[in-house]
Structures are given as structure tokens and as C-alpha cells.
Design brief:
globular, alpha/beta, about 300 residues, six-stranded parallel sheet, TIM Barrel
Amino acid sequence: MNPLRALQNFGQSVWLDDFRRSLVTSGQLQALITEDGLSGITSNPSTFEKAIGDSTDYDDALKAMERERDLDAGAIYERLAVEDIKMAADLLRPVYDASGRSDGFISIEVSPYFATDSAATIAQARRLWHAIGRDNLMVKVPATAAGLPAIRQLTGEGINVNITLLFSQTVYEAVAEAYLAGLEALVARGGDARWMASVASTVAKTSKRSLRAEGRAIILGFLRRQMALMRRCGPANQKQRSSGGEKSRGAISAPGSDALRRGDQTTCHEWRGLAEQLGRARRFRDRRALALQHKKRN
């Protein structure tokens, strides 16, 4: 069996941390998806810089843009990147659909020059999101002091965010809070949180014991807040209509959220996807705990 495909049996998704146009035009990306089970791609300005500068993939496109004298280097890069990401997102779309919208994403990064500018980060993320126009897109935003408000705002607008530059447990917790606040804002304005997706990876030079303990506290806090938000969707709160037996979708009060305490009209179906995510998180946590117990015994 293909070893990359075998990883799927352990609940792992293989993403490619590299990208260039010839991956698409040569058919190599389609082969990686079909034969090797590739289920996602992440890109950044440095990978595009290398691809544009060290290959002939973009020569024709660059020649065509020479006539547009008002384009600066940043605009040229963005146009090329948007075209590439669209093509790759379309190839990954079957993975996205087959996974129930939980995989099959491709990421594009906002300019690193905006790492200390919330407004500029939000503006470029919005522009990229709408220019590419693909549901299986994630926009990479750094977890800087200026990035945290952007993460909240973009999530609240229904934009999938891939969060980068996490180097401590404290920052990871701040990112989780920003993401949750964004989800609450999205639901409060009538958005659908079921299909939201996000990635947050952390790198920390600390002891494994400390990282596990801190990470466990963050995850448990996240789970408790999600439980509070979804409690109203439990069986006791799902009324049956007398005729036809259809579940009522009327508004139900929600504890644990300032946005929802204001009386926003939120229906249970909007949280069904989050409930499924919570179940997966619990199962992962339980499997992890059993694995650690088995390791200690042996």
C-alpha cells in the first residue's frame, strides 16, 4: 500500500508545503492527489518567489503583463498567485467535498510586510478571499499582536484562516480565543459556522511535559466553551411540531456567549457542524489518553 495513503488510516492528512504552476500544468498535482492521497497545500511568498525566479513557468504570463505599466511587483505577484491558487483549489475540490469540507484546502499568505498592521492584513485577506473565490481556500495570517484582531475579524466574516507564527502556549491560547470570538460574531450576524475551517500550528522550545499540560488546559477550555454554546441544541431543547414531527428551528437562548445573550436569533442547525467537530476532538483526546496510559504500563 502507498505509505502516504496508509497515513489516512491513522487520521492523518498529508499537505504539500510547496507550490509552482508546473505542478498543475504538468498533471503532477493531480497525480499526487489521486495516487498519493495528497489532501492540502500551503503556499507562501517565498515559495512563489523561488518558483517565479528559478523556473520558466511564468514567462508567458509575465510577458503579457509587461504591457500593463501600472503594475508594481506586489500586484504582479498577487495576480500570478491568485491564478495558481484558483487552479490548485479546483483540483482539491473533490477532496474537500468527499471529506465533508474538513480537508482539501489550499492556503495563501498575506504579505509579511503587514504583520504589524491589522487593517492592512484584513484588507488584503478580504481581497484575496474574494479574488480567488473558492470555499476550500485558507488565508494565512500571523499570530502577531496585530494579527489577533485580524483573525477575529476575518473569522467573523466567514473567511477561513490559517494561523502562523505560533511560538508559545500563551499565543496559542490567544489565537483560540480570537477564533472563538470570531465564530460568535459570525453566528451573531446570522452567518453559518458549520463550514468554517481553520488551522493553527505551534512550535515551542519547551519541555514536552509542560507543553502537554498547557495544551490540555487550552483544549479543555475550548471544549467547555463549545459545549456551552451548543447546549441549547441538545435533545431537551429540540421541540417536535405536533403535525409532521419536524424539529423546530426557532431561536433558543444560549448561555456562555455575550453575543448570544443579547438575544440574537440563532438556530440549532448552525451548530450541528460544531457539535460534530467537538465529538471528533473528544475521540482524539480519549485515544491520546489511552495511548499514554499504555505507554506508561509498558
